[in-house]
Amino acid sequence: MRTPSLLIATLLLGTSAWAQGEEENDSYWPDYFQLSLGGVFTEDASGVPGGTIGFDPGFSTGMALGWDLGGSETLDYDFEVEAFFQSFTVDETDLLAIPSAVNDDAKTFALMFNGLAHLHFTPQYALYGGAGVGYAKENHYEAWDSGSLQTNDSDGLAFQARLGFEYNFGGSYDVQLGYRFFKTEPVEVEDTLAGTIDEIDVAQHSIEAAFRWGL
């Protein structure tokens, strides 16, 4: 009689421990995956080799894993980790003002940590907003990496803010349409012949759509 009782007790304890472990693992598992795509508009760069240089529109894309931090039916919060990439080009007319420039490409890749709030008007419609900080690993401006010009400190801190509208299709599917402000630390441009150093200090403004799937 003792052996079956001990087996049953062991099984119950093991099941309880397994369930508790599953709950702990679930608390760390992301609650959603998000994919974004947008159009990028870059501010003019002033005081750089070539004078004031403009940029053509480009594109941005991001992938994020997020965690629901809870809240109320009206207001709730998220935390997410996002890989963000954007690409754009120097205006072809302004490129001629940089004598040594050959390539007009510019791009940024950053890993961002974001906090977001969602204000729900109805179960389907909401307003979202938030900010993020991260690290830009690739922040290149090829036009100023030519001839005697070279860019320094292309890696550095990145900052962003987002604001827009959100619609829930029912269940765990959402779509967002909004605005993103993105900025990195200035990128130094050194003229090795003249011995001067200038800075590319610009921000990007994006209009983007994002799609979110619950996990």
Q: Please, could you describe this protein's structure?
A:
It is elongated, with a radius of gyration of 24 Å. It is 14% helix and 64% strand. It is mainly β. The protein has 2 domains: 30 residues; 184 residues, Porin. The longest helix is centred in the first third of the chain and has 27 residues. The strands form 3 sheets. Strands 1-4-5-6-7-9-10-13 form an 8-stranded antiparallel barrel.
Total DSSP helices? 2
CATH topology of the largest domain: Porin
Report low-confidence residues grouped into runs of 5 or more. 1-25
Q: Helix and strand succession?
A: HEEEEEHEEEEEEEE
Task: Write out key terms for the chains shown.
mainly beta, eight-stranded antiparallel β-barrel, Porin, 215 residues, 13 strands
Describe the structure concisely for a colleague.
It contains two helices and 13 strands, in the order αβββββαββββββββ. By secondary structure, it is mostly beta strands.
Question: Helices, strands, pairings?
Answer:
Elements lengths: L1 H27 L3 E11 L2 E4 L2 E3 L1 E17 L3 E16 L1 H4 L9 E16 L4 E17 L7 E4 L3 E15 L2 E12 L2 E5 L4 E5 L2 E12 L1
Antiparallel strand pairs: 1-4, 1-13, 2-3, 4-5, 5-6, 6-7, 7-9, 8-11, 9-10, 10-13, 11-12
